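Researcher: Structure prediction, please.
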Amino acid sequence: MTFIEAFILAFAQGVTEFLPISSSGHLAIIPFLFHFQTQSSIAFNVMLHVATLIAVIIFLWKDICSIVGGIFSGKKESWSLVGKILIAVIPAGIVGIAFEDTISHIFIEPQIVGWAYFGTAALLFLSYFLKDGNKTMQTITWTDCLLIGVFQAFALVPGFSRSGFTLVGALLIGMKKEDCLSVLLFGFHPSNSRGLLAGGNIG
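Model: Predicted structure follows.
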């Protein structure tokens, strides 16, 4: 891979990671669109996800410190939040381990990625018709978190957007739209980490 090719992929990752348009899908189709000599390696994809993970940690540093401080001081709210985030990781972790080879193969099948993009677009279109709920990060239940985790698991498929599917999952359980951003950002840390374990395949 040349420096220019690496720069293009890194730029695409940085721009698309926080939008509901599947960063992993872009990493899969850009080499085909620009006729790269080789596909990006798993190690390179992991490096890109580490970089965006660091960016999110920096952005949420004060909140993370507050949560960690709450845990050490025994605050029930902090322990509950961490538990809910971990619960949301379970479905994606199971899918990532069980179907790692299949998901990795999709990276070299741009047609499948294209159809996955259609699926993301249809889901986002339907989200406009979902009513605003009244649940917050503090009031969602363990079952709610598990359901959000199921939606996040779809994002292991390149072309299925993690933020898009998580947003729809949060709206379906009745969360306030303004609180969905918290789910997207706080859910990024563990979900992106299990994406690294699955070879960097996360939208």
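Model: The chain has a mean pLDDT of 83.
Researcher: Thanks, that helps.
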